[in-house]
Every structure is written in structure tokens, then in C-alpha cells.
Amino acid sequence: MLDYFDKGAVLVIADLFSLITVSSCLVLKVPQINTIRSNKSSKGISVLGLCLELYSYTVMMSYNYTNNYAFLSYMEYPILLIQEYFLVYFVFKYNNLLGNKTLIFALGYALLAIMIYLHLIPVMVFAVLVPFCTPIGATSKVLQLVAILKSKDSSSVSLTTWALSAFTNFSEYIR
């Protein structure tokens, strides 16, 4: 254990922020999912914003996975992706968007995930896509805000999820 602390205070603090971020991400989307399920409505939620967020999480996880980085350094992405899948499902369900087109998209996404897992997609592809994740992630948040303003209804939006998201974004900045 002492050897761990010998690596320096900065790295220990970075690991601590990683653990805090991952811990927060364990429940980040759960309040939002529960709010949508209990309301049986996703009014005020941007479908495009969710899809952009899904893209961003997928690219970041794939980049880290294909580069064989330490799992702890990107563990929040698989956790967020699982929650995002549920969130996307319920938003699509309450917007009556579950159909053949969605099934084809989901199957294509699953095929892409298998190709990533099998390292069939060159690392360079993700190196090109990663710089777009921050602006795309920010755009997804703006689209969520626009959807709330446009619908004039924030009842489907979880304040807890937004607060946790702000915290994890801040801790990512620190890391």
C-alpha cells in the first residue's frame, strides 16, 4: 500500500477524483430514468441530445478500450452507457419512436460494439473522433435546455441528474 502512495500526491489525487467520478456515475442517470418512468412522459427531453450523448460516451469508451488504458481511467463510460441505453429506451418509448428504424439502428450499433470489442476498427478512427466529443457533449446539453424551453415543461427532467452531471463534469476537468 505504501508503494501506491510513493507515486506522488498528484497521481493519488487524480485516482481519488477518478473514484469519486465513477461513484457518482453509478447513479447519474437513475433519477432521470425514474422520473421519466414515473411520469410516463419524456416531454422536455431532446431525442437528438440523447443520441449525441450516446455517441460521445461510445466514442470515449471505445477510444480508451482500444488504446488499452487502465480500466479505472475510463470506467465511468461503460457505467454511463448502460444507464444511457435505458434512458434512450424510455425516451423513445414515450415518444412512440420504437419501431423498425430504431431496431435497425440498435442492431447496427450492436454490430459496431462487437467490432470495437474485437479490435476490428483501427485506433486511428477513434483518435480522429475523440476531439469532437467535447463539443458534441456540450451540444447535447444545449439541445436538452432548448427542449425544456420549447416544451415549457421540465417535469420529466431530474434536477438530481443535472446536479450530478455538473459535479462529474467538474471532476473530469480537475482530473
Layout of helices and strands:
Elements: H1 2-5, H2 9-25, H3 30-39, H4 47-66, H5 71-74, H6 76-94, H7 100-117, H8 123-129, H9 133-151, H10 159-174
Helix pairs in contact: 2-6, 2-10, 3-6, 4-6, 4-8, 4-9
Structural commentary:
By secondary structure, this protein is mainly α. It has one domain (2-174). 77% of the residues lie in helices and 0% in strands. The chain has helices spanning 2-5, 9-25, 30-39, 47-66, 71-74, 76-94, 100-117, 123-129, 133-151, 159-174. Helix 4 packs antiparallel against helix 6.
Provide the domain count: 1
The helix-strand sequence is HHHHHHHHHH
Largest sheet: none
| Strand residue content | under 5%
- The number of helices is 10
Mean pLDDT: 87
Instruction: Specify the helix fraction band.
Output: over 70%
Calculate Rg over CA atoms: 17 Å
Taken from the alpha-carbon principal axes, the silhouette is globular
| CA-CA gap between termini | 22 Å
**Which stretches of 5+ consecutive residues score pLDDT under 50?**
none
Structural class of the helices, strands and pairings?
Answer: mainly alpha
Total strands? 0
